[in-house]
Specification:
Blueprint (H helix, E strand, L loop, with lengths): L2 H26 L18 E12 L6 E12 L2 E5 L3 E5 L10 E8 L4 E3 L2 E7 L3 E18 L2 E16 L3 E12 L6 E6 L3 E2 L2 E7 L7 E8 L5 E6 L18 E7 L13 E12 L6 E13 L12
Antiparallel strand pairs: 1-2, 1-18, 2-3, 4-7, 5-14, 6-8, 7-8, 8-9, 9-17, 10-16, 10-18, 11-17, 12-13, 13-14, 15-16
Length: about 300
């Protein structure tokens, strides 16, 4: 290779690096001018996700929760899906501080009979992400009489979220909880929708005849994009055989953003909270089942999707 050709290649390489740097600065703060077209390196090319699911048995009489099964998987563009470890830990309701960055609390209990169960924490951690959610179960026996049937109500409060780093932006972080019954037993759902003073919150009231009973949830997050939710089937946490049969009794709660351009999403902690309230006959038995699924989805924020490394 002669010197002229080598010099030309060096100049071309330097111009290319400069163009990527300019693109990076431009994409980090998109123009308010709608006519400004994104550059080729701005479109998201690499997406990654971690999804987990935990199947649980909960006994309101003893407060105990028992993990029956758990599974986790990681996905990235152009790479095979592989398993990830899922951590679980149960602890008493009084062991969770009300000052934590994500928690559920009893707001009012005029009956004095609302019984909190043990809290379950599920988590997954990798090279570029951390994901943690808490599930708080509550039971109210002899809640009300429908016709001639005395009922009990069970409320599942889920709260938490996750964070990413190493050049990633998360565009979804959320969870789903389902009561393990194919028969529709749901009488109420709620989820967080608005960030106020650095937290997204939600509250649900149980349906009782003897005065108000309510449970609230709060999650500290960055005020960006949307915090939302839904009921029934949702692909946001991935498709899991463990939860799909129970879609009639399912709530989904998320942080979500776009994922077309690399500046979209969040580099901050994100998550949400939600409530699922079900009602069953008082004499229907003791222990009940529920399924908790969660996911973090992210994309590389760098031009052309270069330099973010491994997500998991």
């Amino acid at each position: 290779m002669n010197r002229k050709v080598l010099a030309a290649l060096v100049v071309a390489l330097m111009l290319g690096i400069g163009a990527i740097a300019v693109t990076d600065r431009a994409a980090a703060a998109p123009s308010d001018d709608d006519s400004a077209a994104p550059l080729p390196g701005d479109r998201v090319r690499q997406r990654s996700a971690v999804e987990l699911v935990v199947k649980v048995r909960y006994d309101p009489r003893t407060r105990a929760v028992r993990v029956l099964s758990k599974a986790g998987r990681a996905r990235s563009t152009g790479r095979p899906t592989h398993r990830v470890a899922v951590g679980t830990r149960a602890f008493g309701p009084s062991q969770r501080s009300a000052r934590a960055s994500y928690t559920c609390l009893v707001r009012r209990d005029s009956t004095g009979r609302l019984r909190p169960g043990n809290v379950l924490r599920v988590s997954a951690d990798g090279r570029s992400y951390s994901l943690k959610y808490l599930l708080f179960p509550y039971t109210l026996n002899r809640a009300r009489t429908l016709g001639r049937t005395l009922t009990r109500q069970i409320e599942f409060c889920v709260t938490g979220g996750g964070d990413v780093w190493n050049g990633f932006h998360q565009w979804l972080d959320g969870a789903s909880v389902a009561y393990a019954s194919r028969t529709d037993r749901t009488i109420g759902t709620q989820w967080g929708t608005e960030v106020v003073d650095g937290s997204v919150s939600s509250t649900i009231s149980l349906k009782v005849g003897g005065g108000p009973v309510s449970i609230g949830a709060s999650t500290t997050v960055a005020d960006k994009d949307r915090h939302t939710g839904s009921t029934g089937r949702s692909g946001d946490v991935g498709r899991w055989d463990q939860i799909e049969p129970f879609n009639p009794n399912r709530v989904n709660t998320f942080y979500k953003s776009g994922t077309t351009w690399r500046w979209q999403g969040s580099a901050d902690y994100q998550g949400n909270n939600g409530h699922l309230l079900v009602e069953v006959p008082q004499g229907s038995g003791g222990a009940v089942g529920y399924v908790l699924a969660a996911a973090t989805r992210a994309h590389c924020k760098n031009p052309f999707g270069i330099g973010c490394g491994d997500f998991d």
